[in-house]
Amino acid sequence: MKTFYIAAAIFCSAIFTSPVSAQSTVTKESIKVWGNCGMCKKTIEKSAKAAGASTADWNPETQVLAVAYKPSKTSSSQIQKAIAGAGYDTEGVTANDAAYDNLHGCCKYDRKATAAETSDVKACCDNSTCGKEGSTCKDMAGCKDKSCCKM
Length: 151
Hints:
- By secondary structure, the chain is of the alpha+beta class.
- It has helices at residues 2-16, 38-50, 76-85, 97-101, 115-126, and strands at residues 27-32, 55-59, 64-69.
- The protein is elongated, with a radius of gyration of 26 Å.
């Protein structure tokens, strides 16, 4: 009978205890993603999840994507590349022009300036070909479309 109780105790402890496994950490991060509307929200979140994010919630007003993921499965870089592949610029990855051009009309946001564009605008203002005062060109707002340049 004593053997029966010992066997029953071992059996019950095996059933009611969960196996010990290595804890997997979840990384939570906020990523700036440019976009406009609800359609953008759906595409951005879907792209993030397809890249391995366990959760993704993009806020159209702040343009910030709150994402959670397991570093063993994906990375911030992979998530941002997937979002850029869908046509949306992120803080770390710029979507290529073809992907951006494929976006629906309401989803075409004001794109962040690339380093080359910023450099061209700065050169326009620095070379005194810009008709704007120096203080106007401080943030390059007066030169972004280069209409002020006297080429």
